[in-house]
Amino acid sequence: MSKPAFSFEFFPAKTEQGHEKLLSTYDELNKLSPSYFSVTYGAGGSTRSRTLDIVQALCTRGDTGVAPHMSCIGDDKSEIAELLTHYKSLGINRIVALRGDLPSGQVGMGELPFALDLVKFIREHSGDHFRIEVAAYPEMHPQARSFDFDIDNLVNKFQAGADAAITQFFYNADSYLYLRDTLEKRGVDTVAKPLVAGIMPITNSSNLVRFADSCGADIPRYVRKQLADFGDDSKAIREFGFDVVYRLCERLISEGVPAMHFYSMNKVEPNKRLVEALGLTA
Ligand code: FAD
């Protein structure tokens, strides 16, 4: 069985101290030889300069690929074009293309209201320069009209030029496998256009539950209940969380998952522990 590729996601730090800490996290995780690191972007440009700072710092730090996230909601085409040109000048050749969610209070969807529009715009602007990853939802995007509509949207993003899709996190392997099979039935060649499993390690109970509820990810009852029982026993949460996510990854590997994208939460552990325990490193 071949080992899946793996990558890590960072979010930009808010302070100079956080930025420095993130660089040392990068150094530690980079020793595991991931395929690339991605950096999130606050929709509506809310983290624009901080995303640029960390992307630029990572580009000069090592030769591992860096994939900036780009969102389109609320942004003008000219701002997006400027960013694409800048990323090209930094030698970047991979983008995670998203719609984003507008910060509360901000109105107006802008010139490119959906990720599909952004994928088309990137292809018009930069041809095939960038490998484009888009978002996928094994348990359906919370605002989607229906499961089918959401699948159509993903198929359309592939047809418009996306090269791969990274899933929202999930703890039920069948939801990922169902999505992969459904894409195949809709004519997407998931070998050529892989469905990358988004993996969220579990280290904290309340943040995870809040985040899962807001993005429509399901936390199975046996996980939710035990996390609640552990209260503030962070060691018990970490050990249980490791076990749950390790088993999920093992199952995905046995089902031939092509790649895993770890939502690292800017931490070395438990990402390093999972990658090593799963034998993903070269
Ligand atoms: P889309 O693919 O455009 O879909 C959004 C919704 O609109 C779906 O419900 C879809 O079914 C629906 N839809 C599509 N087309 C139409 C239409 N024509 N009419 C009506 N409805 C339509 N957010 C950030 O702000 N920054 C990040 O860096 C970031 N990184 C992410 C990374 C990953 C791997 C994932 C999975 C999500 C990330 N997000 C990020 C969150 C993401 O931006 C949100 O989930 C957002 O709500 C949807 O983005 P999307 O790209 O999936 O949008």
**Strand order in the sheet with the most strands:** 1-2-3-4-5-6-7-8
Shape: globular
Instruction: Please tell me the total number of domains.
Output: 1
Ligands bound here? flavin-adenine dinucleotide
Spell out the helices and strands N to C. EHEHEHEHEHEHEHHHEH
Indicate the CATH class: Alpha Beta
Rg (C-alpha, Å): 18 Å
CATH architectural name: Alpha-Beta Barrel
What is the CATH topology classification name?
TIM Barrel
Q: Into which percent range does the helicity of residues fall?
A: 40-55%
What layout of secondary structure does this protein have?
Elements: E1 5-10, H1 16-30, E2 36-39, H2 48-61, E3 65-71, H3 77-89, E4 94-98, H4 115-126, E5 131-136, H5 147-159, E6 164-167, H6 173-185, E7 195-199, H7 206-215, H8 221-230, H9 234-254, E8 259-263, H10 271-277
Parallel strand pairs: 1-2, 1-8, 2-3, 3-4, 4-5, 5-6, 6-7, 7-8
Helix pairs in contact: 3-4, 4-5, 8-9
Flavin-adenine dinucleotide is lined by residues 40-43, 69, 71, 96, 98-101, 114-116, 135, 141, 143-144, 149-150, 153, 166, 168, 198.
